[in-house]
Amino acid sequence: MRYLLIVQYDGKNYSGWQRQENAVTIQQVLEEKLQILLHHEVNCVASGRTDAGVSAYFQPVHFETERQIEKNKFLYSLNGLLPDDIKAISLVETDIHARFSAKKKTYLYKMYLSHIDLPLYSEALRVEPNVDLKLMKKFCNLIVGEHDFIGFRASGGVNESTIRKIYSARLVQDGLCLNFYVTGNGFLYKMVRNLVGTMLAIGTHKLDFDALKRTLFNGYKSKHTAKAEHLYLLNVEYK
To answer: Does 51 participate in catalysis according to the annotation?
Structure first.
């Protein structure tokens, strides 16, 4: 049987999703706890890899087992084994592939407007209040559509097509909070962080918007990467 597990985690204490030899990752912890319950080796496949420090509100993960699972009891037992910063939200039988069946992914980058660091906004990136939000919103409009985003892929990314489709990119202000939401059919290595970093460089006039617009999908290479700890995988959609 294949099961789809929805996982939520705070990524600041982990070296990303994918297993590594000399670092603790989300995948490693989850597989170890599942193996305790299922009494066999477990391979977890996520909807996509999150970088070191990146968190997830909604990360779909599938695994397979021949054992019969009583879902509510299994979730309760699994969460009892998992650390406080990783929790399983739901479990369903499925025939979908967590990664290859995904149609849309939405990421959230949290920011706030302030001249000083505010203790109750530590999960968000502080941005000076005089940032040019109009230019940042123009950048959001610019990246919507199907483009070659190779300029926003960090070195170390896998050798794959760099064409991606962005369905929406929004900058939403609510009081001091400033949130960037981006939905696409997939994202390259550190692509969202590079989009946010570039958007902030435009908003602080470190980059000229008109010059960037002319070169964005024609050899432009992002040199601005936003911090990982304020990025969240918000949602993944399937058919």
So the answer is: yes
